[in-house]
């Protein structure tokens, strides 16, 4: 399997967009969403090669678990997974994987404002990798070693949503949105 490299070493690729943080928005409110349908948690699968398939919901759960383990190890409270935030993170990851939007934080404010939660602050981490057997752990390693991403992971947030999407080229896109509504 082909692996790209972002740092000029090894045979794999991990690309991170610098962590994006939004300052508190005084008096910010969002529209209440009357659509209270639960988020579908069916596992989508993408074949990366004749022998490799990723279950994107399993990768999302892995990121969530790893983030919370890290936070607890640093004396921070666990984040609560929110279906509405996850929905926006999934849409962004799917759009990046499908080439509808570039790998970036473009549209972050719109994603956060689409979540029917009144919030004080918000942030986002995104990652792209290819050629790894565990893309979630690879993204976590990259985020923890990046000051901007780590700031978001350790931030005073209480809610999160995680979306993972992969395409037929084996590219895996991960988005994590952090929100503080306290």
TrEMBL record:
Residue ranges annotated for the SCP domain, each copy included: 65-178
Pfam families: CAP
InterPro entries: CAP_dom, CAP_sf
Cell membrane among keywords: no
Entry keywords, A to Z: Signal
Signal sequence region: 1-27
Gene3D superfamilies, sorted: CAP
Protein name: CAP domain-containing protein
């Amino acid at each position: 399997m082909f692996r790209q490299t972002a740092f000029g070493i090894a045979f794999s690729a991990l690309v991170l967009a610098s962590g994006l943080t939004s300052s508190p928005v005084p008096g910010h409110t969002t529209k209440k969403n009357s659509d209270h349908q639960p988020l579908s948690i069916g596992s989508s699968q993408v074949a990366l090669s004749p022998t490799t398939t990723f279950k994107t919901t399993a990768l999302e759960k892995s990121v969530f678990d790893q983030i919370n383990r890290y936070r607890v190890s640093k004396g921070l409270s666990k984040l609560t997974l929110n279906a509405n935030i996850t929905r926006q993170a999934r849409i962004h990851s799917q759009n990046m994987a499908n080439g509808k939007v570039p790998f970036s934080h473009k549209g972050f404010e719109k994603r956060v404002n689409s979540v029917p939660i009144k919030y004080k602050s918000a942030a986002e981490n995104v990652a792209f990798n290819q050629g790894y057997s565990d893309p979630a752990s690879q993204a976590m390693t990259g985020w923890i070693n990046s000051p901007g991403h780590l700031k978001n992971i350790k931030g005073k947030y209480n809610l999160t949503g995680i979306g993972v999407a992969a395409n037929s080229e084996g590219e895996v896109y991960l988005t994590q949105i952090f929100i503080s509504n306290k």
